[in-house]
Amino acid sequence: MSRHSNQALKLPHSGRSARFAPALLVLGAALQSSQGALAQRTWRSLGRPVTTEPATDPRLHVDRFDRVWIAFEDCTVAGGCGQLTVMRYDAAQDAWVLVGPRYGASEDRSFFNSLTTDLNGAPFVASLDYGAETVSYDQRGLNVRGFEASAQQWLTLGGPALSMGQAHCPDLALTPSGDPIVAFDDGILRIENGVRRQQEHFGRNSVMKFERNAQGAWTSRYLGAPGFSGGRETWHNNVEVDRSGTVWSVWRDETYGRRAVAARYDALRDLWEPVGAPGFTIGDARNLHLRLDHNDRPHVIYFTGAQFVFSRLELGPTLLTSVWAPAFPSVGFGDLPGMQYRDWAQMEFDPFDQPLIAYRANGAAYGGRIVVRRFHAASQTWPELLSVLPNGEAQGASAGEADSVSLAIGPSGRVFVAYRDLAAAQGGVPPVVVKEYR
Fold first, then answer.
1. Under a CB-based contact definition with an 8 Å cutoff, are residues 60 and 408 in contact?
2. CA gap 161, 183 in Å, rounded
3. DSSP letter, residue 381
């Protein structure tokens, strides 16, 4: 998953970072006053459905101006599921409007979509693109694009063939100066009869930076060595950039029994330093996410043993002796018998460093609906964000079965979720909807 540039204003992580005006402390007191107060708020649809035609992998983002963006694989293009489409919510029209042409943000089918904006509100995307070339002359490479407002087009950054091989799990962040940084599972190469071939379907963790040269053209380069994680294949690749410009990366690594590994980039030496012990999670780190809180402290969430586990980096005398310590109570809500690809959870921090999680709840009492919870520090619990219906019943973010959830939080503390509403499917096609909790 998405992310902001971190400068003087530190934005909430629907992606990444932010400082807020003191006036928002009043809102903070209201948000945290009680669990009962939270329950009086309501989930409301943001405009009509983003699309009622086939779509998948929606990703939300809220920029520093509190504008809501969404990117998704738009499956209405002739010939089947198709390219990446980006839209923005127009509050005046209460409608979703296209950002550039439809299907314009990728060459072909687009997976693992990631979306962010810079401090000026200009959007960027990254994804695995079935039509993007790779160095190994394969396809399904890395797609990174920025929106050129003057031309109303999505511009490919860094030229063709960005990744060595297939680029799974790309994650996008921006530096304080607005340069995109992407972590991804980079297919590794081998030479066979003098021809370069991709060695494996999956590869190793790589991080790439995009920046403009003196002529204003976008260029790309690896931070450190390509596939610097070494060892076996990786998954759930994550990247964050703090306000000082330091780049952090976390990934699930097959070498360590699918446990998590973390590293920090040393720009002076152009190499990655391990952060804490490799394989620091208590088990298979499924659904691994890296987030920085508003003091730039790295946190991870992952799913293992039918529970979510939350860890925060506690720096030691050296990076290697640092420890990923429990950050919030590990939770098994009784609604998590299993999590598949479209069930994966999202975690973000609100402006007051209270974490929220959104996920598909698979327990029998929940029926696969979307659940959003905010950590309540006083009680050390995770109450669900609920609407109270006119009949007095409580309802969560989705009324029925849904999947492919995305969570975003705006600089004023507004909470948004997007998902495919399976319960509202017409002709087998679930609409993509966005809701706000207010």
1. yes
2. 16
3. B
